[in-house]
Amino acid sequence: MNALIRDLIDKKETEKIQKPNFDTRIGREFLAFYLKTKFKQIINYDKKSGNNLFLNVKPDFLEKFLDRLINQPQRKILISITGESASGKSTICNEIQRCIEKENLPISILNTDNYFNDISDLIKKHGDFDALRDAGYDVDSPHNFQLDLLRSDIEKLANGHDIFAPKYLVNGTGVSVANAIEVKSKKIIVVEGMAATYSEVHDMFDIKIYIDLDNKTRRKRFLDRAKSRNQDHQNALKHWDYVCVAGKKYVIPAKDKCDIIANGACSLEYFTKLLEYINLITNNFCEV
Fold first, then answer.
1. 41-65, pLDDT tens digit by residue?
2. CA angle, residues 118, 120, 124, in degrees to nearest 5
């Protein structure tokens, strides 16, 4: 599979088509046609693989994406990656980060988990986070995110402006530190996390990816992760029950609105090749 992908996105071959000037609309339309052809090749081959990445791709996705690239070439490419807890979102983004560092790709990652509201006072009142959750606090409700700030920050990144995102501390204190993480505006902006599914920001993305994985595998990943963090097993089981309910309530309904349903058990290397492909083919549509 990797050999085929390398053939499809071979940099030398790609650069042959980059030599002309694509500043004009006609040039961008030609490059868009090339992108469409290459992407369809990957999708068709993927269908024949034993462990495919693309579980589903919306029929109108490519046309809409290419139309946006043609008509708004200066705007950055916004990609959302979402899915239920332990589906593989963070793992994929960690792989993307590794690839960024290795290949110097023009990609920035924004984690929506850092946009949780500051709930430190509520945690102090109830004693700890688990007690707050058990008292009925719906952690993943859209009301408990700074969604206005998230939308504003995504819009700034899309228009070429760097931002300082908040940082939500995962040490159980519920503290949110304002302006703590610098995020550069690069050609491709990947926004990861549950909040990317919410209606306040969902319409902003050029490519909406939903990571899908069976419940049995997700449960094992979730509990293994809790164990690695020295979390109490019974509390981890309680929180698993909570995230399953939250997933059904907030995440799964957005699945049908996503452009690509991706296999959470698929090869990370293959997913990375897809991002490399998008970078190589689209680098004439907008500046790095």
1. 778 878 877 778 889 999 999 889 8
2. 160
Which pair of tokens denotes residue 199? 């209606």
Domain spans in the chain, listed from the N-terminal domain onward = 2-213+250-282
Cα angle value 102/274/109 (rounded, 5°): 60
Helices then strands, counting H and E runs in the chain, come out as 12, 8
What would the two tokens of residue 70 be? 């043609």
Give the closest residue to 166 by CA, choosing from 150, 154, 152: 150
Q: Within 13 Å and on the Cβ side, how many CA atoms surround 20?
A: 10
Pairwise CA distance, residues 53 & 167, whole Å: 31
Question: Burial, 239: exposed, middle or buried (Cβ in 10 Å; 0-12, 13-18, 19+)?
Answer: buried
- Residue 93: per-residue pLDDT: 86
CATH assignment, 2-213+250-282: 3.40.50.300
Longest dimension (CA), the chain: 64
Q: Could you tell me which of 230, 287, 242, 226 has the C-alpha nearest to residue 23?
A: 287
Helix or strand (DSSP H, E) at 91: helix 89-103
Rounded mean pLDDT, 205-214? 94
d(CA 55, CA 281): 23
Cβ(281)–Cβ(38) below 8 Å = yes
